[in-house]
Design a protein that fits this description.
11 helices; alpha+beta; single chain; four-stranded mixed β-sheet
Length: 394
């Protein structure tokens, strides 16, 4: 049942038992997960059947043609792209059974409690503390920032310092945090777009059972690296059709407004169109490489290209629109469930894309990763790697 024919047979059986037209959406998604058709490369019993990752398209195509609902992946992207692969790799059997099904179905939204006011680019410098109690649980105090979907989230992936006497990378532990704990306070951060897509999160006496620790005590940085590598692939390597993403609206504007065309704009559009297509095909190759194992540092290159292209393309679109490009439709403070780049106007795309070079790892940090781990260039000297975190200047 792990080849294309077997997956098609399993998909047809799902559709026959749960016709999309007459089955409740959530019930269909639960049945799909239980049938091993959620993410086919996951193990049996955890939403998959241990099939090659490349065969997921066989299932998705068949279900789409049958009018089956999806799990709204943009709304639950942090859970799908970051939490799930980390739980799969480091979680206990009990954690996998508890969290993966409601995560994939979309019953429980996840957020990421990593960045802090004093630990953004240098994430390992984080100061949020987790102290173990006599009964084995953990009490967490600290502040996180730039947390997408925190206002919607039921759970969070969280890294906190458990031993300040160790160097900064060694004294960190990874947890699964219940966002309904009374010590969790979520405050909106209004952005340049007018929306409050991001949040700051204050943790005061938050109790986390040791059963919700992911990986060993003090091994949080290694666990977090798995999350970060998957995050960059999910941001920069999303599957798109030709002229998908940001290049689509600007190409459409070019075709619909011949009066706005100039030779210079034409050359810039051609260059960006080719670069967007190269990035799209490179992302496809990267996804194919994932069939053979975990994502590597190459995802940093994809995320770099994603940020640069989005900013340059959105800037070109505003220029193409002339005076109209200076308009902005709505400054209302909203707390959206997802970021819709292509469903909004050019002004939104231009402003929102400024954050692409910060979120998911700043472009400066990702350049270092590409230089050191992909190109093999000499590592920058770091004088703080062997110094206890408590002794670092802050």
């Amino acid at each position: 049942m792990t080849d294309a024919a077997g997956l098609l047979s399993r998909t047809h059986a799902l559709l026959a038992a749960h016709p999309p037209a007459t089955t409740d959406r959530a019930d269909f998604l639960r049945a799909r997960f239980d049938a091993g058709l959620a993410w086919v490369h996951y193990p049996a019993g955890l939403g998959g059947v241990g099939a090659p990752r490349s065969l997921q398209a066989v299932v998705d195509t068949e279900l789409t043609a049958a009018g089956a609902p999806d799990n709204d992946p943009r709304r639950i992207g942090i859970g799908l792209g970051m939490a799930a692969p980390t739980i799969l790799r480091y979680g206990t059997d009990e954690q996998k059974r508890r969290f993966l099904r409601p995560l994939w179905v979309g019953e429980e939204v996840w957020c990421q409690l990593f960045s802090e006011p004093g630990a953004g680019s240098d994430l390992a410098a984080l100061a949020t503390r987790a102290v173990r109690t006599d009964d084995g649980d953990w009490i967490v105090d600290g502040q996180k920032v730039w947390t997408s979907s925190a206002h919607l989230a039921r759970w969070a992936i969280l890294i906190a310092r458990t031993d300040p006497g160790l160097p900064k990378h060694l004294g960190i532990t990874y947890f699964l945090c219940d966002m309904t704990d009374p010590g969790v306070e979520v405050r909106p951060l209004r952005q340049i777009t007018g929306e409050a897509e991001f949040n700051e999160v204050f943790l005061t006496g938050v109790r986390i059972p040791d059963a919700h620790r992911l990986g060993g005590i003090g091994e949080g940085w290694n666990v977090a690296r798995t999350t970060l590598m998957n995050e960059r692939v999910s941001i920069g390597g999303a599957r798109l059709p030709r002229e998908g993403g940001m290049i689509g609206p600007v190409a459409r504007t070019w075709r619909e407004r011949p009066g706005s065309r100039t030779h210079d704009l034409h050359q810039r559009l051609l260059t960006l169109w080719v670069e967007a297509e190269v990035a799209r095909l490179t992302g496809e190759r990267l996804r194919q490489q994932l069939v053979a194992g975990e994502p590597g540092p190459e995802g940093a290159g994809m995320k770099l290209a994603f940020a640069r292209l989005n900013q340059e393309i959105s800037g070109l679109e505003v220029e193409l629109l002339g005076d109209e490009g200076l308009l902005y439709s709505d400054w209302t403070l909203r707390r959206p469930e997802l970021v819709d780049f292509t469903g909004r106007d050019a002004g939104f795309r231009y402003l929102r894309s400024k954050g692409n070079s910060i979120e998911g790892g700043t472009s400066e940090v990702l350049l270092n990763i590409v230089a050191e781990r992909v190109l093999g260039l000499p590592v920058e000297p770091r004088n703080d790697k062997d110094v206890a975190w408590k002794d670092l200047a802050r």
